Amino acid sequence: MGKQSSAKKVAKLAQKGKGRQVRFQGGTLFPAVVLIVGVLGALLIFYSRNSRPDHNSPPTTNDHWHIAYGFYVCDSWLDPLQGTLEDQGTAGYQKYVASGVHSHADGVIHWHPFTSKATGTNAKLGVFLDNYGITLNKNELTFPADQHDGASYKVDDFKCTVDGQEKDVVIKVVVYDPYNSTDNAKTYITDFDKIPIKNSTSIAIVVAPEGTNPGLPPTAEELPQLGAVDTGGSVPTDVTTPGGGAATIAPTPGATSADGTATTVAGATDTTVAATQTTVATTEAATTAAPTTTG
């Protein structure tokens, strides 16, 4: 009789427990902490995978690339930047050692990376500009004191005189690919430091009235000869180079057949830079850009 009574009690307790939710002791704090930790872990994994040095994608520490460049203000080209950055104790030497990016006062960017700072997806125009202490954004182009006497061109107060009239200026960067053709060009209107570097191209940095088309930099046609002068790519003794090896000049690609000038925001993979677009008419071509980049 005792056993039967105990069985009935167990059955009643089980019946009462049906439909009840199991709760963590202490409320929702513990599961919330577990969820936050899981999300943070996933974000850290994503960040580490996307920020690790890119040694395998070109340019690598075995590459030696050359890019013609020029600064165009109002209606003329400025002289090339002076100094190679290769001499110890000079301005920019430490940044050169950390990247391997410099020029030879020849209007050519010599890009032979010493470290991951200038390899793969880190190969961007900002590395070259920073090495020479140049400030470049959509609002100003400013040189350091040892370049062009520290000249500064700001869109808010600098004007160009055209046919006797002062006109406002805009700042843009035009990339020509290949180096000796204007048929296939991209015009960047912001985020200039993020412009990807590509071998055997030409880069025009322009401060001029809207619609000005400067064409190729003066050294563009001579790029193969100027690049061939410097193919050694020797690494300073205070640099540890991942991969090592002697640098070689990469071959010059053939011309492309694409036409027109596309306005592009640096880092975009397509000339369409946003879902909402504003059409910008210029004398060069009809272009499109995200509203936030038209200045």
SS elements, strand count: 16
User: What integer is the average pLDDT?
Assistant: 76
Counting helices, strands and paired strands, the structural category is alpha+beta
Considering DSSP H and I runs of 4 or more, what fraction of the residues is helical? 10-25%
Essential attributes:
295 residues; alpha+beta; three-stranded antiparallel beta sheet; 5 helices; elongated; disordered C terminus
What do you see in this structure?
The protein starts with a helix and ends in a 6-residue tail after the last strand. Helix content is 20%, strand content 24%. It has helices spanning 2-17, 29-51, 93-99, 125-131, 223-229; strands at residues 63-73, 76-77, 101-103, 108-111, 135-137, 140-142, 152-154, 159-162, 165-168, 170-176, 185-188, 201-208, 248-249, 261-264, 278-281, 286-289. It is elongated. It is an alpha+beta fold and 295 residues long. The chain has a domain at 63-253. Strands 1, 2, 3, 4, 10, 11, 12, 13 and 14 form a 9-stranded mixed β-sheet that branches. Strands 5-6-7 form a 3-stranded antiparallel β-sheet, with no helix packed on it.
List the helices and strands and how they pair.
Blueprint: H1 2-17, H2 29-51, E1 63-73, E2 76-77, H3 93-99, E3 101-103, E4 108-111, H4 125-131, E5 135-137, E6 140-142, E7 152-154, E8 159-162, E9 165-168, E10 170-176, E11 185-188, E12 201-208, H5 223-229, E13 248-249, E14 261-264, E15 278-281, E16 286-289
Parallel strand pairs: 1-12, 1-13, 11-14
Antiparallel strand pairs: 1-2, 1-4, 3-4, 5-6, 6-7, 8-9, 10-11, 10-12, 15-16
